[in-house]
Amino acid sequence: KAMGANEIRRAFLKFFEEKDHYIQKSYPLVPLEDKSLLLINAGMAPLKPYFSGTKEPPKNRMATCQKCIRTDDIENVGRTARHATFFEMLGNFSFGDYFKKEAIEWSWEFVLEVLEMPRENVWASIYQEDDEAFDLWHDHIGLEKEKIVRLGKEDNFWEIGTGPCGPCSELYYDRGAAYGCEDPDCKPGCDCDRFVEFWNLVFTQFNKDEEGNYTKLPSPNIDTGMGLERVAAIMQDVNSIYEIDVAKRIYDRVIAMKNSPEKEEESTSIKVITDHVKAVTFMIGDGIVPSNEGRGYVLRRLLRRGARHGRMLGIRHSFLKDLMDTVVEIFGEDYPELKEKQDYIRKIITVEEEKFQETIGQGMEILDGYIETLEQKGEKVLSGADAFKLYDTYGFPLDLTLEILAEKNFTVDEEAFEAAMEKQRNLARSSRQKQGTEGWAEDPLKSVDPKLKTLFTGYTSFKETAKV
Ligand code: ATP
Ligand code: MG
Ligand code: MG
Ligand code: MG
């Protein structure tokens, strides 16, 4: 059934509302209370206080469609058919209310009756020791045993350190041999694009203590996560999450901007831009501003990475700010904050992007020169000083330099780079420059109306080191 992404989102929330869930709109991408997390990366992340019992939920069953950012997946964008840095996660949650049986039952009902997926294409994975889940899938649901795959701890057991944890069960969709790999036994868990993991059901039933003992929780929880874009790609029968209805409009606009027909080797860059412009639009909409650390650095990196891929397509002017309008057009109805802050978002992207456009060409030339020199000398590591120059004078975030170098098997002396950074920080401190202008001769955001700039300091005043 060809359902649009917006339609799937609404159908999901309605389905669980009818199952008596409290529907909560997406929390911001910036964790409101959780200092351990840079950006919300799953539907359950903002609900942690309800799971741990430190806060009372509005109801003991909830459902959300949560905006997520996963920088861990940045290298996969455009390389696999199913990873983005920004995506929406649909989820239903039980805080000590219903458990495994209902979670499995309802996922099946939603998949077959609302999404109308052909039954024969749906598979499930379970944690290898979770016989209870096996029995539910097999005896209760009637799924054939060949289509219930037992996977190990890395894939199907959810835990972070100590505390609540438990086995998972994932739903997979078989897209057919055409999407597959060489392996005749290819099945869920394989890394190719044939079996798409689209829904993860986490059964939080244990508590893990310091000694590594697992004890049963008195009232177990349910936490599920379904990737909206992945479901849409399955439903719309398109190759990747970049070609679903909502993404395609951005994708096509990128092609229109580059003024020449799409070439095959350009597809990764187009996908990167399609993803990153969405990420930066939503991030700025949630109050993040570009900076050199923490989430502001993640934003800056995504924005400049997007600009670089634009350049690879031959786009030599600021274009992300215009693409942003398309993002707001598509998502503005379901995420009204984007419409409300559209002018502000445009302004932030514009200054950041225009400033980078001034130097990116020169920076690329210099980097190419460095690479040539390394090649001539038969060396593999760019000096920290050179990487720092690219950063300081041309606005190349270290990760961008690293990535461009990695494409040719070079790296950077990161320690020396960090030392150069530290030296500059100290200099800035001693000259009483409080504003974070590192990375630029002057802060590109200076031209933004200060009233706008300080609007969201509540979110951005945390000092954290970005690990991206
Ligand atoms: P994968 O193994 O494909 O990387 P995951 O196991 O890391 O996915 P989960 O942490 O289980 O993903 O997240 C729940 C769901 O969110 C996944 O089943 C998938 O549908 C979706 N999802 C996860 N990562 C991404 C991503 N980078 N882009 C789009 N959707 C994602
Ligand atoms: Mg993953
Ligand atoms: Mg997985
Ligand atoms: Mg998973």
Short description:
This protein has 468 residues and is of the alpha/beta class. It contains 17 helices and 11 strands. The strands form 2 sheets. Strands 1, 2, 3, 4, 5, 6, 7, 8 and 9 form a 9-stranded mixed sheet that branches. Strands 10-11 form a two-stranded parallel ribbon.
Structural description of this entry:
The chain is of the alpha/beta class. It folds into two domains: 5-235, 2-Layer Sandwich (BirA Bifunctional Protein, domain 2), CATH 3.30.930.10; 245-460, no CATH class. Helix content is 44%, strand content 16%. It contains 17 helices and eleven strands. It has helices spanning 5-18, 48-52, 100-114, 131-141, 153-156, 228-235, 245-258, 267-285, 294-312, 320-331, 336-340, 342-377, 384-394, 398-406, 414-430, 450-453, 457-460, and strands spanning 22-24, 61-69, 86-94, 122-127, 148-151, 157-158, 163-174, 195-208, 214-227, 381-382, 411-412. Strands 1, 2, 3, 4, 5, 6, 7, 8 and 9 form a nine-stranded mixed β-sheet that branches. It has a two-stranded parallel sheet with strand order 10-11. Helix 7 packs across helix 8, helix 9 (294-312) packs across helix 12 (342-377) and helix 10 (320-331) packs across helix 12. The longest helix is centred in the C-terminal third of the chain and has 36 residues, at 342-377. It is globular. The two termini are 37 Å apart. 43% of the residues are buried. Residues 433-438 and 453-468 have low confidence and may be disordered. The structure holds adenosine-5'-triphosphate and magnesium ion (MG) (3 copies). One magnesium ion binds at residues 155, 197. The site of one magnesium ion has 3 residues, from strand 8. Residues 3-468 form the Alanyl-transfer RNA synthetases family profile domain. It catalyses: tRNA(Ala) + L-alanine + ATP = L-alanyl-tRNA(Ala) + AMP + diphosphate. Its main location: cytoplasm.
